[in-house]
Amino acid sequence: MEQLNGWFTELLSGNTIFTANTLSFYWGGLVTTVQLVFLCLLLGIVLAVPLAIGRGSKRRWIKLPIYAYTYVFRGTPLLIQLYLVYYGVVFFDGIQDSIFWVVFKQAFFPALIAFTLNTTAYTTEIFHGAIKNTAKGEIEAARAYGMSRKLMMRRIILPSAFRRALPAYGNEVIFMLHASAVASVVTIMDLTGAAYYVYARFYAPFDAFIFVALIYLCLTFSIMFVFRRLEKRLLAHLRPRGS
Amino acid sequence: MNKWITSALIVGGLLAGQISSQAIAQDSEPKDAIRLGIDVPYEPFVMRDADGQLEGFEIDLGNELCARANLECSWVEQSWDGIIPGLLARKYDAILSSMAITPERERQVMFSLPYYNTPSVWITARDRDIDINDKDSLKGLSVGVQRGTIRDVYVTQEYGDVLDINRYGSSQDVVNDLKSGRLDLTFEDFPIANDAIDFRKDNSPYKQLGDSIKTPTSIFGKGAAMAFRQRDKALAAKFDKAICEVYADGTFDKLMDQYFDYDLSVRPSEQDCAK
């Protein structure tokens, strides 16, 4: 460990920008970004499943509000949504004295709310599309077994739909990681925020942003790797035989 | 046709003006004529009145300095991005245009003594009881600054270990979050705060904490100064002396009070003036 430390210090001694101090900024940014993106995706999935089922409902009072929600949140930029949640919420009278202020005082939760609303809208549409495209034969077979609609949804339609939605959902995860870069505009020290800080402090845009771009690249590749593996396992039955 | 007449008149008028001013300069003895470059407008430092004449704090100050240096000064308008090249190309002999002294600029031009510097100021809500000098009591409080500004550097360096620093893209966002109650404190450029936050009156919702801050100069800079070509040392010395004089006899303060209701003076040291 000591040796590693010495080696590390020596490696850093040659430059003025990437000191241990700035690297700790980047590390903090990485942790914040991963936390933010992971949490919003997790909440997004939990919310999107019932919404996707509701979106395909025959009842208009269920279907239409969900459609309106996904339409609005997919139709407006995430940055605007973030601004509205962060700066807009303080225009509600008395919010500072209510219990909600505990949540909205920090920048993290407004950003998490905005990101979750956004990714939920996209994930809902992805799942909805997959559910709608379930092969007729699978549904007929389930009916022939005498399954109720609930049981059929749980055992046949959803598992099948999730598998088919996987590639599109993998894209959404990567998009969300990249979209999270806007969090820095509401003072969150995520990866981009750290890069901005280093840029502003050393007037070195190239170094600051290239470095952060490489970190994003590593994250993206890790996500892609995980989804490749998942697809290989879960979509094995869809591949041509013998490949 | 009309256009031709108009432009002929303008050119004629310009020539006549040139000649007459030269005639006056020749008539009235030893005063050297120099030209000062300035970027117009930058209120209230320089602007145009209803007749199109230049006016403002820097115009008054510049004319006063010229009178004391026994120089005949005229003003040349020049947009900001070409103001140093214009000086080096001899379009004018000095810049008097709120130019802050920086090491990068010092490589190209020679600066006079600084004549003003805008201060920065701590602001908090009126009902808050915060002592900015007692660092232990500041633990956990949040402060908003505009990212990458000298205020950001100062707060990070001096208070980075106690205050929770929120960095914003624009000073408008800082003010918004001070007003929303997300921020306990803000450290802001005085002129910006003066326009955007109500903190100067006894019953204002916000108040200033401690004194306005202009030091250390390693962060806040030395201030705005006149700029000369590197070789015009004698000319710069004349203006340095004039700047010392207007500070010494209170003329600067009188001019400042005329245009500003806050202190942006940078009194030159006796050492600087003795040279």
Key terms for this structure?
heterodimer; A: 243 residues; mainly alpha; MetI-like fold; 10 helices; 0% strand; B: 275 residues; alpha/beta; D-Maltodextrin-Binding Protein, domain 2; 2 domains; five-stranded mixed sheet; 12 strands
Tell me about this structure.
The complex is a heterodimer of chains A (243) and B (275). Chain A has helices spanning 2-13, 20-55, 60-75, 78-88, 101-105, 108-132, 136-144, 149-179, 191-202, 205-234. Chain A is mostly helical. In chain A, helix 4 (78-88) crosses helix 6, helix 6 (108-132) crosses helix 8 (149-179) and helix 9 (191-202) packs antiparallel against helix 10 (205-234). By secondary structure, chain B is of the alpha/beta class. Chain B has two domains: 29-117 and 222-274, 3-Layer(aba) Sandwich (D-Maltodextrin-Binding Protein, domain 2), CATH 3.40.190.10; 120-219, D-Maltodextrin-Binding Protein, domain 2 (3-Layer(aba) Sandwich). Helices cover 40% and strands 24% of the residues of chain B. Chain B is built from eleven helices and twelve strands. In chain B, the strands form three sheets. In chain B, strands 4-1-5-12-6 form a five-stranded mixed β-sheet. The radius of gyration of chain B is 22 Å and the shape is globular. The termini of chain B are far apart. The model of chain B is unreliable at 19-28 (pLDDT under 50). Chain A binds chain B through residues 87, 90, 96, 101, 105, 107, 185, 187, 189, 193, 196-197, 199-201, and chain B through 144, 147-148, 152-153, 166-169, 173, 176-177, 179-182.
